[in-house]
Amino acid sequence: MIYGNVSLHNVAELLTDDGNGVLLSRVPNALRLLLNEKAQKRALNGAGVELRFLLHGEEAVIEWMLEPGEGISPKGIAEVFQGSFQSDYETTPQIVRPGVTCLKVKRNQKHHKFLQEQYQAGQFPFDPSVVRVLLPQDSTIRLLRIDGETSPPRPDQVPEERYLAYGSSITFGGDAAVPSGGYAARTAGRLGVDLINLGFSGSCYLEEAMADYIAERNDWAFASVELGINVIGLMPVDQFGQKTEYFLRRVSDSHPDKWLFCIDIFTCHRDLFEEAIVRQYREVLQQKVRELNRPRLVYLSGRELLPDWRGLSVDLLHPSTEGMFDISLRLARRIQGYRND
């Protein structure tokens, strides 16, 4: 989406209300209002959202207002990248506190010629001329103003292929130290593709409307769906199976030529305490993938992607920064293996 002279990546619609500025929704508002109440709020969080632009003047000034989410730190972290590279020490990361934040962005030109040559040689996916501001993943952001001589990047300056990731707070990037640290973001980076992050913290309920939306999108090359953890105790296993079948059938049948990777519940406290229910949900997911028998629908074990429970945060549910790294390493290898086969 183009807003003024910048590109808003992973934003489907701009919303206005009685507050200041514009809200950034990761899905169309008509769809957002069909989702569960939690997901309606999470759709306005900044997971995977980036402000992208070419900076023609000395600096750009971005002003926004952060509204913290429920049950998380009242502060957020924003990052600035130049192409595929983290910006300099003085610029990133930025702590974002509740209220109005004014971020001044300048480009570091010291090695630009060398980086541009390496980009042209295919060494990394983003043109180093593209400034990328990664918003805090856990909070709602009201964009107030963007000043400076900027223009949106050209399509050839960003990755051509896109990876769509739907799932829970783990896909969302919860407990990752920085926005670029979630497993989905890291996986996209390892594969040299762009990311469409449709993670919904605590609210990945497999709505039919969400399945229809993903199925009707044509801007992704491959996708992953991480299912189960948000509905344990919320819906019976049989109902989970029914929702899973619709979701996977709808998306895979709409894109028979695209790989769809179905990830079950990652290693968590339920495994450590040997709760039978987590095994039941995993078995149902695996069974549905097997029964659908679509050539490019692939089941991936969350326990195999995160085999060591020491990669969890202290809640023994969300992967830590190290755990996110480990998941992305294994997931990228699996995806690349199938796509190269």
Automatic annotation (TrEMBL):
Lineage of origin: Bacteria, Bacillati, Bacillota, Bacilli, Bacillales
Pfam families hit by this protein: Lipase_GDSL_3
GO MF: hydrolase activity
Top-level lineage group: Bacteria
Alphabetized InterPro entries for the sequence: SGNH_hydro, SGNH_hydro_sf
Gene3D superfamilies attached to this UniProt entry: SGNH hydrolase
SUPFAM superfamilies: SGNH hydrolase
Name the record gives this protein: GDSL-like lipase/acylhydrolase family protein
All residue ranges annotated as the SGNH hydrolase-type esterase domain in the record: 164-326
Organism: Paenibacillus prosopidis
Alphabetically ordered keywords of this record: Hydrolase
